[in-house]
Amino acid sequence: MRKLSSHLNLLACTGASIIMLTAANPAVATQMDTHAKSTITSQLPETRPVDPVLMLVSLQKQQIKVLVGDRLVARSKVSTGKKGHRTPTGIFSVLQKKRRHHSNIYSRAPMPYMQRLTWSGIALHESKSVPARPASHGCVRLPNAFAKQLYGFTDRGAHVIITDEELNFAPLWHGNLLYPDRKPVQKPLQSVSDEGSLQSYRQNNNSMSPVLLAQNGSPADLNGPDANALASDGFVLRASLKADAPTERVIDRFELPDSDSPVRILITRRTGRELVRDIQTMLTELGYDTGDADGWMGPDTGNAIIRFQNDNGRKPTGSLSMSLARALHEASGKGPFPAAHIYARQDFKPVFDAPVVMENPQLPLGTHFITGLKSHTDRHTLRWLSATLANTPQPSALSDIGLSSRPGAPLSNSVSDALDRLTIPAYIKERLLAMLVPGSSIIISDDGISDESHLGTDFIVLTKSHSKH
């Protein structure tokens, strides 16, 4: 088990259930602009960076900024999508790199030093025409020399964020974030679902209790009152997002991938296949057989819904809804309804996903990007930077957004408020603590898994903007 850093212990000592300290310094990108406008050019450093690279594209300014950690190292003009071919805004990462590439869509137009952002055709690439105004068919055109430098400066997986206005980052501390300690660890717990496993873990590790983040953000004791948060939440931790993956396989909650690559985490609303699959599971558990719990709506699931609705005095619609999900969850006695979901990927592959409880589900979470960097004071742990992206969530039949809010409910879309509302099970936090490294990231979004987030990508979050750029 990983011990948490001294930073987290200091936070826990305050006694607050959720703690968020945002540094008083200006946002990172703004601070860099203020102090270095005259020195930051389109010339990238010759040495490949050790710290994570982050690229920020502004459609309004037709400009790209390159950050190494929290340090702005270069900027360049770009040319993005013209009218009718607008460059999509959102959070991306470099999926593929090719020195020589030709468009599969536009008459095999050359796209040298291509860095792919989506499999549907959006990329960064070199162009001989970069007029610092929208002129492309959706890609981000880069000047020749800069495109070549940037290609050699980045790795697959580096994040690219495209926004209308410039995006600013600020330091973030919060009890629902994780601060891993990379020092030697104790023997991992093999199964938290077996009776007596918590006690046997303590015996096998010289009576030393591993330190976790409890539900309130404070250290938790496996043998204390937080133990139940580890052992049960009424749902399984799933092994992957593959269509043919076993739907009820309970994986070892401490089985870790053989990789030290950055972890990509998405926390979003349960609006997709995972929610449908859990509705099917709950119906079957209550005696309304849906057939396979495969996450797809078919006649067996529709008939099971109608039988449940008839038996419980509800209008027999046979359709899926959040109201139905909540009624099933209550009837199943599973505790608080988990309106959110957490997904983890590494090396473009799914690691696990699981439900998460979210307070005030009728209110938007907002769209936030949080990136982990090495601590300035402790090389074993992380510090976090965050930025909030402008976005308009899209309500759906499987979304609570748009329901009338209860009196006094918070209306803020800040990253700290979003984290305040999430209750992440301790066993998930423990698993992530063992995997987090600099360059890991957390995305919070209302819109579920996007169609662009295929297997073989990081999480791609598309934002809806009303800008004309």
Topology summary:
Layout: H1 6-12, E1 20-21, H2 28-36, E2 53-58, E3 63-68, E4 71-77, E5 89-93, E6 96-98, E7 114-116, E8 123-126, E9 140-142, H3 144-153, E10 159-163, E11 170-174, H4 197-204, E12 211-213, E13 219-221, H5 227-231, E14 263-269, H6 273-285, H7 299-311, H8 322-332, E15 340-346, E16 349-358, E17 367-374, E18 382-389, H9 415-420, E19 422-423, H10 426-433, E20 441-444, E21 461-463
Parallel strand pairs: 2-10, 8-9, 14-20
Antiparallel strand pairs: 1-11, 2-3, 3-4, 5-10, 5-21, 6-7, 7-8, 11-18, 12-13, 14-15, 15-16, 16-19, 17-18, 17-20
Helix pairs in contact: 6-8
Structure description:
The chain has 469 residues and is an alpha+beta fold. Helix content is 19%, strand content 22%. The chain is built from ten helices and 21 strands. It has helices at residues 6-12, 28-36, 144-153, 197-204, 227-231, 273-285, 299-311, 322-332, 415-420, 426-433; strands at residues 20-21, 53-58, 63-68, 71-77, 89-93, 96-98, 114-116, 123-126, 140-142, 159-163, 170-174, 211-213, 219-221, 263-269, 340-346, 349-358, 367-374, 382-389, 422-423, 441-444, 461-463. It has a nine-stranded mixed sheet with strand order 1-11-18-17-20-14-15-16-19. The chain has a six-stranded mixed sheet with strand order 4-3-2-10-5-21, covered by helices on one side. Strand 3 (63-68) and strand 4 form a beta hairpin. Helix 6 crosses helix 8. The longest helix is centred in the middle third of the chain and has 13 residues, at 273-285. The N and C termini lie far apart (49 Å). 46% of the residues are buried.
